[in-house]
Amino acid sequence: MVGAGILLSRLVGLLRQTAFAHFLGAGVASDAYNAAFKIPNAVRNLLGEGTLSASFVPVYSGLLARGDERGARALANAVLGLLLAAVAVLTLLGIAAAPWLTRALTLGFAPETAELTTRLTRVLFPMTGLMVLSGWCLGVQNSHRRFFWSYASAALWSLAQIVLLLVGGPRAPDTVTLAEWLAWATLAGALLQVGAQVPEVWRLSHPIRPSLDRAASGVTQVLRNVGPVVTALGVVQVSSFIDLQIASFLPTGAATNIGYANTLALLPVSLFGVSVAAAALPEFSRDSASQTLDVLRERLRGGWQRILFYIVPSAAAFILFGDYCVGLLYRSGRFGAAEQRVVQVTLAAYAVGLVSFGSVKLLGSVYYALQDYRTPLRASVASIITSALAAAAIAMPLRHDAYAVAGIALGSALGSYVNLSVLVRGLRARLGPLYTPAMWAGTRRIVVSAVVAGAVGWGARVMQVSMWPTMHPRVAAGPVLAVFGVTYLLTAWAMGSGEAARWLRLAPRRRHDVTSG
Q1: Burial group, residue 112, by CB count within 10 angstroms (0-12, 13-18, 19+)
Q2: Can you tell me the distance from the alpha carbon of 32 to that of 496, in angstroms, rounded to the nearest whole number?
Q3: Where are the alpha helices (DSSP H) in 206-253?
């Protein structure tokens, strides 16, 4: 259900990016919008879904598991009140400090781009409060094992922007005006997203009465958890701002192009890494509370193998057929062949780290369920240092080249493997061996299937190009990617994959368990 909800929201999100690319392309207005969005979005990430999933959900789920619904309701109301108070202060400060924030985070922007970024930041900053409220709604719903709508409601946020772009795009006198209109539509979309979740949350945890009652059951524990989580997420946001800072010194369009590539790269991570991790967190929390660590370990193994089944072929597709993936979504209007090539190379760089991007989501959930927040923090710090140094070392010497933006993505990929190695080492010390012989066998099947699918898909690509060399990517991508996907599933099924058998609605080739892939 998490995967279905995220799929819906991501598909609409991709349509939003397609419309954005068509009407805004990769220029001054798009760079300013992306930079302005990143600044208030950092506050949302610090206090929203990520923090609440890590600090609030384990405590709230524990109260529900013990049958203390009154205590759980009091905790939810207290956390909501504290969140709203914190966000109100931060939003006012953000609006007032927008010029200084813009100047500090985009030193390489031209003066007119920086000025536009400041105006857009002031419009977008109130969105943080709405999105934090949305994160609280998501935490309540997930704790009650209500997953679909908590993630699918994000589609409304994208839908508001799509409507504005389709209606306002042809009518806007220039891209700067369109970017300003889009900022207001983004704010309205956040309001729609929250409003859509309130009825379900009211049914699960009514009455909703925000309070500042720090004496409510579990509040002290949640607040104690928030510090390390916010610190860890803050480190991640520092990485995001470092990427923005580096991109501001690169040719115009770099901040936009890395956003296009990042959206595509995170699609499989969100669909499979985040969905498995989000669904598993309440269960990990219950396993931890009942001291059934063997069950937790087996749940981790099963989830990890399922993530790899989807992430590995996604990485292969992005590397081999990245031009088709990018062209399918973005090649239109102001987004032409030159932009497509830059985003393709950047996407391939992100794909190098796709396995670790997806895996750390699940492993981090285990630490949060065990209420160990220091290890993910150490992992994040090590990751950020690595990615920042690598990104600067690769991108800055090439800063006059449009393809230098791929260096930022490659730095993120390298840093993510450092993150993964720290998390794996810590869990192995607490839970024992994580990867079993059956999982290694399953991983080999996944890799071999992806290699075979890549070879067959590449053959289909060569044949297509020889017969129709000028075919538009939006027409050419479908058949080639379909050949790749079907070949992967059939090969994996022939090698004994239970996950492939479920997709193909066929009987498994041989006896397996969920960790065998």
Answers
A1: exposed
A2: 50
A3: 219-248
State the alpha helices, DSSP H only, in 25-105: 28-47, 49-51, 57-65, 69-96, 98-105
Alpha-carbon distances, residue 380 vs 41, 214, 239 (angstroms): 19, 29, 9
CB–CB of 476/324 below 8 Å?
A: yes
* Single-letter amino acid code for the residue at 74: A
Q: What is the mean pLDDT of residues 259-280?
A: 79
Quick check: 299 and 277 in contact, CB under 8 A? Answer: no
Q: Is the pTM of this model over 0.90?
A: no
Integer Cα distance of 412 and 415 in angstroms: 5
Specify the pLDDT at position 513: 45
- Here the tokens at position 12 are 């609409």
- Between CA 138 and CA 163 the distance in angstroms is 25
For residue range 113-143, what is the model confidence (pLDDT) as tens digits? 989 999 999 999 888 878 878 877 877 887 7
> Which residues fall within 8 angstroms of residue 171, CB to CB, at 6 or more apart?
none
Q: DSSP state, 109?
A: S
Question: Which residue is associated with the tokens 């501001």?
Answer: 248
| Max CA pair span of the chain | 72
- Report the SS3 class of residue 129: helix
Q: How far apart are the first and last CA of the chain?
A: 20
**CA dist., res. 195 & res. 131, Å (int):** 11
